[in-house]
Amino acid sequence: MIKEISYNQYAEQAIEGVSKGAFLTTAVDGRVNTMTIAWGSIGSIWAKPIFTVLVRPSRYTYQLIEQSDEFTVSIPLKGMKEALALCGTKSGRDLDKIAAAGLATLPGRKGKTPLIAGCSLHYECKIVYKQTMTNQHLSPEIDAVKYSVEGYHTMYFGEIAAAYTEE
Questions:
Q1: What superkingdom heads the lineage (predicted)?
Q2: What is the CA radius of gyration of the chain?
């Protein structure tokens, strides 16, 4: 059963859950892809509830999210480790990760992008701002550790249109 909640009602659990792995899902023209994220934040910016996610341009999800104006984040607070591992190591260019991981989706209630079924928390987000990172204002320590091999992320600021728990 899906129950609508305030965006910040489970913010502490959401942030902790994201750090252990969550599903970032995008959809464009019938193509749905999910990837595992471990970085993200929930807060208030511009007097709006915002979920910020980061995606590298090398990812298939980047191609889709750039063509979309929305995304969802589904956070399993327990289990789903194998699905998170698969969705974090395989590309949606090569296979349907949702099917390969044995995942199911639920329709979004506020948008077209589905949620990943079986997760404890879900957020539907409308992109209100994006910014490609550079090293110009980035701490040298973070740059050296997190960006020594791959390129910089684009940050997507999604206004949280709805938040849910799944029981």
A1: Bacteria
A2: 15
